[in-house]
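Exercise 7. Given the encoded structure of a 166-residue chain, write a plausible sequence.
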């Protein structure tokens, strides 16, 4: 060994860094390699477990989404059915109301006809009664001149009975 090549500080940075890095990497790989391998294995296992859990959650979410779609479809079908039934019920009610109105109108017409008929009968009776009263009055006047009171009463009663029979 010469005096120039002794142990000491090397001033060439590139040579010393490469050697130092090679030594550090060798020591790290030798001593720390197993620890790093085990950490990496644990990390890999943790990542795989997280991926499996995420996949399981995704599957559950897809199942929940499918169930929600099925429930939504059922609800939509029920809404459509209820709407259809409601329309049918409304049409049925309208038909029943029209029938009821028709019946009511028919009853009103019949009532109107019967009322008119009874009013006509009443007026006819009143007219007949006035005619009878007038006729009796004339008869009474004629009888007063020619008949006695007893004969007159008997004729009046007889006439009234005959008119009542009509």
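Solution.
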């Amino acid at each position: 060994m010469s005096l120039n090549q002794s142990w000491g500080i090397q001033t060439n940075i590139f040579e010393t860094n490469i050697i130092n890095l090679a030594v550090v990497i060798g020591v790290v790989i030798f001593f720390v390699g197993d620890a790093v391998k085990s950490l990496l294995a644990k990390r890999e296992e943790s990542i795989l477990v997280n991926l499996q859990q995420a996949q399981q959650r995704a599957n559950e979410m897809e199942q929940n989404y499918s169930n929600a779609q099925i429930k939504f479809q059922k609800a939509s079908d029920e809404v459509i059915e209820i709407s259809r039934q409601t329309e049918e019920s409304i049409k049925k009610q309208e038909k029943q109301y029209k029938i009821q109105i028709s019946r009511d109108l028919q009853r009103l017409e019949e009532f109107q006809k019967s009322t008119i008929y009874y009013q006509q009968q009443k007026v006819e009776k009143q007219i007949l009664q006035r005619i009878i009263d007038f006729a009796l009055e004339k008869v009474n006047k004629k009888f007063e001149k020619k008949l006695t009171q007893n004969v007159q009463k008997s004729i009046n009663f007889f006439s009234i009975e005959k008119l009542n029979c009509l």
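Remark. The chain has one domain: 13-165. Students should compare their own answers with the one above.
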